[in-house]
Amino acid sequence: MKIMYVSRGYVFDPEGSHSDIRSIERLYFETGGGFWLLKKEQSVIGTIGLKGIDSENRIGEIKRFFVLPEYQDKGYGKSMMSQIIEFARQAGLIKLRLDTEKQSYKAMSVFQSFGFYEIPKYNDNDIAEIFMELSIVT
In what order do the strands lie in the sheet with 117-118? Predict the structure, then answer.
């Protein structure tokens, strides 16, 4: 995970703002979601997580969506997003949300290609600048 944050100019902080990766079982799997690694040979080249954030309204949240820069623009991000949306549908979710920063323009392109649209702030993430949602009812 550290290389993914460093490649974007961030400091990896597993004790602070990135502490969720220390509790993947509890925060992702136990809420009805999951956490996936995209690997090429023995190296992790991407990640994506899904956690349930509102069981009553069947809303999930996409987290830690990332593909290393040298593997971007090759369809990996769209493939991961397509698979997580299908997983969410199978899990009974009807909406997906996410937050991101304006500088994540490549990720924004992927989100928009799937139909995510901007919504008002829905969480307490002080770093996020853009909040998005997608209805996945079939």
Answer: 34-40, 43-54, 59-67, 95-100, 130-135, 117-118
Q: What are phi and psi of 106, to 5 degrees?
A: -70, -40
Say how far apart CA 89 and CA 134 lie, in whole Å.
12
DSSP summary character for residue 129: -
What residues have CB less than 8 Å from 128, skipping those under 6 apart? 99, 100, 101, 121
Looking at the DSSP assignment, which residues form a beta bridge with residue 105? none
CB contact at 8 A, 33 and 26:
no
C-beta of residue 31 within 8 angstroms of C-beta of residue 92: no
Cα–Cα distance for residue pair 38/43, rounded to 1 Å: 8
Q: In whole angstroms, how far apart are CA 57 and each of 33, 41, 93, 95, 132? A: 15, 39, 8, 8, 16
Q: Is the pLDDT of residue 23 over 90?
A: no
Helical ranges in the chain per DSSP H? 2-6, 24-27, 76-90, 105-113
Q: What is the pLDDT of residues 66-115, one digit of tens each?
A: 999 899 999 999 999 999 999 999 999 999 999 998 888 889 999 999 99
